[in-house]
Specification:
The chain has one domain. It has 75 residues and is mainly alpha-helical. Helix content is 81%, strand content 0%. The termini are far apart. The chain is built from 3 helices and no strands. The model has no long low-confidence stretch (mean pLDDT 95).
Length: 75
């Protein structure tokens, strides 16, 4: 039996790959490209939280966005 791939699953995996790219760019010290990848990944994971109606996922990614933005603006 094949599992049906839903839209939320696609968004979830795209967000995960983008976050991993962000970590890789951080390891290579490629600033600000890493930050841009993290912003995209955070936005997509927030969207997953909305689709799942999971407030914990939404809250953690709003917090991540705020901390990343403040750090970026103060750098």
């Amino acid at each position: 039996m094949k599992a049906k791939l839903e839209f939320v699953d696609i968004v979830k995996w795209v967000a995960t790959v983008i976050q991993l790219i962000g970590y890789g760019l951080t390891g290579l010290n490629l600033v600000p490209y890493n930050i841009f990848m993290f912003f995209i990944g955070i936005f997509l994971w927030f969207a997953v939280g909305v689709m799942w109606k999971d407030r914990a996922i939404m809250v953690v990614h709003v917090g991540a966005f705020i901390s990343l933005l403040v750090g970026y603006l103060n750098a």
